[in-house]
Design goal:
CATH class: Alpha Beta
Distance between the termini: 34 Å
Helix content: 40-55%
Order of helices and strands: EEHEHEHEHHHEHEHH
Oligomer: single chain
Largest sheet: 7 strands, mixed
Shape: globular
CATH architecture: 3-Layer(aba) Sandwich
Number of helices: 9
Structural class: alpha/beta
Strand content: 15-25%
Length: about 250
Amino acid sequence: MKLAHDVAGDGAALVLLHAGVCDRRMWDGQRPALIDAGYRVVRCDLRGFGATPAADRPYNDADDVLALLDDLGIAQAAFVGASFGGHVALEIAARRPERVGALALLCAAMPGHEPSAELTALGEREEALLEEGDLDGATELMVESWLGPEAGEPARESVRLMQRHAFELQCAAEEFEKIEHEVDLAAVQAPCLAVSGAHDLADFRRIAARLPEILVDAEHVELPWAGHLPALERPSAVAELLIEFLRKTVPVG
């Protein structure tokens, strides 16, 4: 299965990987600025999100993204990953370090992270609502849990739309296990910007703070205004942050 995707711009390849409550539309606020900055921007929907159907067999998200890049003839790219998209980007960078020129991780999940009681409880509440068939309730739980205090109604409605669509795709399909690969984060060679939000769940703040201790070249920046989805909460500020990092690590010409 080829992931639904779009490609625009010229220059160094830049792959945007969405959060697990969103799809590739979450990058609408950054995509034009990144293209104008000289990057060839690739966005994709992971399986069961956006325009990509749910899985029809066991699969691995990192393998799917790598297959897409092979189809596009992209040997190496910079990656921007939000939340679960950050997990996927880290897995790619660890398993195939030659494919990754730089990493910008926004409130990323991390392979091997043991979830806190708070995060586990949130997942259990979500699952209970879905088992009851209450997609509206599960959607609102995600909107309330993952957006920070500065998120306006447009951001909330955007998450609501993307998450509800993902629930509909996933709940209507047979569930298949994901293929797990061994991931050694010490193998990551790309320079990394690890961003956390001061209003995010503690798990993701801890991950971002730990990454400079694990990776060979990483810096941590905490955004005092942000929740879990800063790209939606302050789109222009995140675009500027990404371009500043990318210009230092991935020259465009």
